[in-house]
Amino acid sequence: MKILIGLINGMISGATPILLAALGGAYTYYAGVFNIAMEGMLLTGAFFAVLGSYYTGSWLIGVLLAILGALFLSLIFILFAVVLKTDEFVTGIALNLFAVGATTYMLRKIFSVKGVFSNPAIQPIPAIRLPLAENIPFVGEILSGQILMVWVAGLATILTYFLIFQTRFGLRLRAAGYNPARLDSSGVPSSRMRALSLLACGVLCGLGGSFLSLGYVNLFAENMSAGRGWISLAAIILVNGNPLGIALISLLFGFSDGLGLLLQGYRVPSQFTAMVPYIATLIALYFYAARKRRLNSA
Amino acid sequence: MRQKILNALIGIVVALLLGAVLLLLQGYDPLATYEALFRYSLFGYYPFATTLRNAVPLVLPGLSAAIAFASGVVNLGQPGQLVMGALFATVGGLYLDLPPALMIPVLALLSMLGGLLWAGVAALLRRFFDMSEFIVTLMLNMIADFFTAWAITEPFKDPAAFSPMTPQINPNGWLPKWGEFNTMILFMFAAVILAWFVFNRWKAGYEWRITGQNALFARLGGCNINRNFMAVMLMTGALAGLAGGLVVMGGPHRFIRGLGANYAWDGVMIAIVANNGLIATFLYGLFFSAIQTGALGMELITSVPNEISQVLQAVLVLVIVASREYLNTFVEQRAARRRAREART
Amino acid sequence: MTNNPTLIEMRHIVKVYPPSVLALDDVTVDFRRGEIHSIVGENGAGKSTLMKVLYGLTQANSGEIIYKGEPVHFREPGEAIAAGIGMVHQEIVLIPEYTVWENIVLGVEPVNWLGKIDRQRARQLVKQKIDEFQFNLDPDARVESISVAARQKVEILTLLYRNVEVLILDEPTAVLTPQEIPQLFAELNRLRDGGHTILFISHRLEEVLELSDRITVMRKGKKVDTVPASATTRQELARMMVGRDVIFTTRRKPQPPGEAVLRVENLSLREDHGRVRLNNLNFEVRAGEIVGVAGVEGNGQFELVNTLMGIQKPTSGRIFIRNVDITHFDILQRRQYISFVPQDRGKMGASLVAPLWEDAIMTHHRLNPRFSQWNGLLLNTRFAQQFTRDLIENFSVVAPSPRAPFRTLSGGNQQKVIVGRELLLQSDFVLLDQPTRGLDVGSMEYIHDQILRIRAEGRAVLMISADLEEIFLLSDRILVLYRGQLVGNLPVEQTNPQEVGSLMLEGQVQSS
Amino acid sequence: PATSTQEQPKRVVYLINGALGDNAFYDSGKAGIDNIAREYGVETRTIECNFDAGKYEPSLRAAVDFADVIFVISYGFEDQLKEFADQYPNKIFVNIDTVVENSKKTITSVDFIEEESAYLAGVVAGLATLDTTIPNINPDKIIGVVGGDVDPVVSAFVFAYENGAKSIDPEIQVLKKSLGGAWDDSARGKQAALQLYDQKADVVFQVAAAAGIGVLQAARERQLYAIGVDTNQNDLEPGYVIASDIKNVGKAIEDVYKAINDGTYQPGQVLKYGIAQGGVDIALEAQIQVLPQSIIDQVMALRQQIIDGSLKIELYNNQNVWQ
Ligand SMILES: Nc1ncnc2c1ncn2[C@@H]1O[C@H](COP(=O)(O)OP(=O)(O)OP(=O)(O)O)[C@@H](O)[C@H]1O
Ligand SMILES: Nc1ncnc2c1ncn2[C@@H]1O[C@H](COP(=O)(O)OP(=O)(O)OP(=O)(O)O)[C@@H](O)[C@H]1O
Ligand SMILES: [Mg+2]
Ligand SMILES: [Mg+2]
């Protein structure tokens, strides 16, 4: 029982940063921006979250700073890819490289450490206890005690869904991806929508980064995004950007990651259990492709 | 052509200037830093030889990516293909015993086979299940990483070693050195020339290029799209795999942890910076190798930390590509304005 | 109407596309309030560019625009729309995934305080406009599911929804059927009578004469003249456009057809969920014969081409060329028997970024052994260059060199390269899909001559065209496709455009 | 070739295969280097290879060009190290944490007996899991360990840890998780630890560098206990880290350098650094002391036995400790 609850909680916390980053990527996906900079934005967000929280003692300021940090990368992305029309893939790769170098450098410069900065003065994002739900067996143990950012991620999923499919902003955003010429000639510059989508991505990746460094664990480590930005990209592409689908894939990924660790207790070499999430992604892709083929032929 | 070279040079210069500003802001002396950077990468027998050698695992995956992208194939699996190639060559080197003249080519071929098979997995999944090679190759990179890690900690481990690694391969499979020059660079030159030749002179290369530009047109023109996709996937996989084999045969002579580092991924980046041009990929590969190699000297002499060289590389990538595109439009617009002025008079 | 006050004046407009295409060369023209003003000219004459400059889609290098007496400068279409000028592009730019009303309100969506789109109101507003202009459109239909003519209406409605006074229509009739055109014209006339100013671009001179109040003729970036429609003729317009006389009658000489080259037997294509795309087609095309395929777009032409070319597999039926059953051949095998000119140059006919020679040798490189070296491994580039130079010469292509990027060629020259490439394949059967779509009179004439020449050589031609005039001009026999069915197989001498038109629209000849 | 008669060295390089910032092994060595610089006024440099095999040879070459004394942590480039040592017999090569022997026998190796301290860590964990008077300790005899990878060094830790725990009570079960090389992914480290706690382990030993900090944080979250590694991490999560297994690389480096400076240095030795030599140790003191004095006394007694040689700790010998 405890293991199962642990697995579910692990799934939720594993999914949260991926979900937040992927939701951010969904905006750019719909706006027709090929954005692979989520990895760098997560990392930058994680760094600035710790920076803000450590110096001010307020996790909220940490989160805000994380958003600003990730937004800074968004601005560079906008400058190069939207204004100067540089190839988006190149811009993304360069920004990821930049984020690793810059956060490592700042870590050394500001905190005079390399590798990990962990300090009791870093205020974590609080966990939300639900006194009512707590008494329900099983469900209560999952619902209560989740870190605030988990709920934020859930909310962000719904909000993103609403924004993209129900609002003026969303109609224009998707138009920028489907046919920018149409949007341009209807008087809304498509480049503006692309820029806005990148800003949205920055905000969400900032939140995701702050979850990494102030939520699940309470420290900054070099390269602590550890490929989650790439997984979020795979999640987006797998479900064509649909926010609900993204939530599902993120959970699947969080689950298989935890499952991989758990399987180690059962005589599978750790390198193979570590592959589980990636193999799960491939399997998801298989079913997705099969479904698409069916739809196409129908 | 001259314009292209000029644009590249301007981009590099602007990027280096920007980098200098960054260094100044952080309180380092940019001149001394660049001096150290290039002294440890270009000016000198050993530095130059090292730069050439370090270029191998950048240029080969770069060529692989350039050919794939230019053919409309999104093979991003170079990192995985590289380590699989390295593993194949290593295992071959552990169990085979042939005279060097045979052993070296056999191991090189084995490494190509490793990369080819790993790319082949992605190709087959795409071909028969319609699974986008973009995601598949990315996932296979991770899987290859763990798989090779397992291979060197379990079945092929060196029991005498303190960290996961295989024993050394048979010395007959070691690439000889000429002075400081490692003969692995010969393989690189040969690969560049061959790849260029195949891509630009072969009939298949012609079809790949056209397919990359307009797949429907190529298909209607009678090109066998599926076969070409397979061929490109396998060939680019083999190129990346070869890089892995050469790294083993010319470097530590065994598969050790961290063998692949970030090379292949940097190679992909280089291919894009080079706009998928093969010769340009080669040149940029040398250039970035020089930066990476020189970073060591930079660290040693001016104690600029090596993460600064990472930032510098990011700036280089962005600025080179942005300025190339900016300069192209700038040049064209200037010509247009001149033309308009002529028309008015 | 021709005496109305001037609404827009464009003065001394110069526009160069980088690096050096002089698209507008000192053009001065005026448009009056409440007129339908047509602009005609060959491909590349600069018609679209002139309108794009007015609309703010592209910026002129010099010159000025006076609108309602004030100098204006629109930096983007939004500003032009705000000032009351709207444009429907030559290529329809709608979002197929969106519904009609979503396309129309995009950019000026009615929303509630949350930013949520007020669907009810948006649909109602669109409905109102549809009714007001009697457009007969379903606001909830997805654009990908409606006809080309309906899409055109969506484009026009989009502008009317924004209350523009000036409507710019860039070749709106190019994609319409003969029956749809009068409807559009009636709508335009109604708009004009309601006080709108309409700027209309077209190649089709008889349309222009019928519709316009005044006509401006352009040639090679220059304005030739502006004339009242009532004071000119088709011949005169054509002469101004191309700078010489143009013949409009057929030069097709009678010629007895030979034996059957293409034979299609019981060809059907059914999609998985049962929709019938091609329904039991039976026909043949004989040597020395041009067979035209008429039909409203979307009635099976696309699928006919796809099954003939091997892109789609027919559900049943067989295809023979000279008694060889090619039904199960792959594309390359078919290419030994079929020359094919596709309808969309950029999408199917060539790679725009490749150098000209690489586009010119496609298919030849597989079929003609002289392109091979080293047992077919290597491409004989020297021969390829020679081949391209010959093609350029024999098909009067204007191109700087075989190495010039294909996209730098003008549309007409691109089409000549493709036609030349295909005709040089020497196959017995030639499949032409809209061979002159979007081409100007000069290029069209040239391509028509080539088609007649291969007929004279005794090759069999199947030509799909949306242009009935072209079909009647060239064909010996006309096939009419209606809902995937062959509803007419008529020798050209025994029919007329009205009959074919009815077959296209109704699948049968009206009894009235 | 006696280096002892040579003039005083001027430049020292600390060459590591990985990167600084592990809060542990490499950093501890760096501290020793910094102390040398301060005490003897020599110029020092650190070269990090970031686990990039392509950098090993050029780095070694640069180090040889630059310095007279080279301290290396040579995982991965033992072969090149031998070559260079043979080529430059006048330079001093000190290899840390592994044993490398070149044909001219000039390389000095510092070998840490990590089994000694890890054994004691196992003893601490074993005693703690049996002592239900400690808050939140459950009656199950289960403890855990999280390793960064499954390499021989981590395996040696796990091996001795298990032996230590079983020496207290053979029924104690040791659950093991490895992060498959994700040394820097502290979230993963935390998740692994949480799973162990959910499987009823009440003490988890981390051998996972940066990822291991996540283990310590998991202990706080579950209100259970962890054991730190390499440096004294007892106060990183006060009240939840009950001990740290310390590896004092800096001390070894300083000792060797002192010998060089004093002229007593002998090339080609293998210097064993166990608890007695101050190379490894167990640290129990903490701001908030969780362990009862009885346990502390018991561990200290065993530690003393190891120092005076009355307790011999079994060394790791390539057994598969991961089941
Ligand atoms: N890093 C660089 N430094 C200097 N010059 C460069 C660099 N990168 C590219 N160039 C120049 O740009 C030119 C264009 O490269 P590109 O690879 O497109 O040419 P190519 O290989 O001949 O083309 P293709 O591969 O299509 O045949 C190169 O020939 C080279 O002279
Ligand atoms: N975006 C562009 N870049 C470069 N050249 C262009 C561009 N658009 C048009 N041109 C060139 O400018 C000239 C005028 O083009 P324009 O589209 O105005 O002609 P048009 O009269 O509308 O022709 P058509 O009847 O084919 O639509 C042509 O030579 C064309 O090739
Ligand atoms: Mg090139
Ligand atoms: Mg036009």
UniProtKB/TrEMBL annotation, chain A:
Drop me one GO molecular function for this one. Answer: transmembrane transporter activity
Q: Where in the cell is it found?
A: Cell membrane
Question: Can you tell which superkingdom this protein's organism belongs to?
Answer: Bacteria
Q: Where are the transmembrane segments?
A: 7-27, 33-52, 59-83, 89-107, 147-164, 195-217, 229-252, 272-289
Supply the alphabetized keyword list.
Cell membrane, Membrane, Transmembrane, Transmembrane helix
Keyword Kinase included in the entry's annotation: no
Q: What is this protein called?
A: ABC transporter permease
Query: Where does this protein come from, organism-wise?
Result: Bellilinea caldifistulae
> Taxonomic lineage per UniProt?
Bacteria, Bacillati, Chloroflexota, Anaerolineae, Anaerolineales
Automatic annotation (TrEMBL), chain B:
Principal subcellular localisation of the protein: membrane
Respond yes or no to whether keyword Iron-sulfur is given for this record. no
Q: What is this protein called in UniProt?
A: ABC transporter permease
Q: Where is the protein situated, by its record's location annotation?
A: Cell membrane
GO molecular-function annotation terms? transmembrane transporter activity
Origin organism is: Bellilinea caldifistulae
A Pfam family matched by this chain, by name? BPD_transp_2
CDD domains registered for this protein in UniProt: TM_PBP1_transp_TpRbsC_like
Membrane topology annotation: Multi-pass membrane protein
- What are the protein's UniProt keywords? Cell membrane, Membrane, Transmembrane, Transmembrane helix
Automatic annotation (TrEMBL), chain C:
Q: How does it sit in the membrane?
A: Peripheral membrane protein
What are the ABC transporter domain coordinates in residue numbering? 8-245, 262-508
A family per Pfam: ABC_tran
- Molecular-function annotations in GO: ATP binding; ATP hydrolysis activity
Q: Where is the protein situated, by its record's location annotation? A: Cell membrane
Signal peptide coordinates: none
Question: Main localization of the protein?
Answer: membrane
Q: Which GO terms describe its cellular component?
A: plasma membrane
Q: Which UniProt keywords apply?
A: ATP-binding, Cell membrane, Membrane, Nucleotide-binding, Repeat, Translocase, Transport
Q: Mind telling me what this protein is named?
A: ABC transporter ATP-binding protein
Provenance organism: Bellilinea caldifistulae
Taxonomy of origin reads: Bacteria, Bacillati, Chloroflexota, Anaerolineae, Anaerolineales
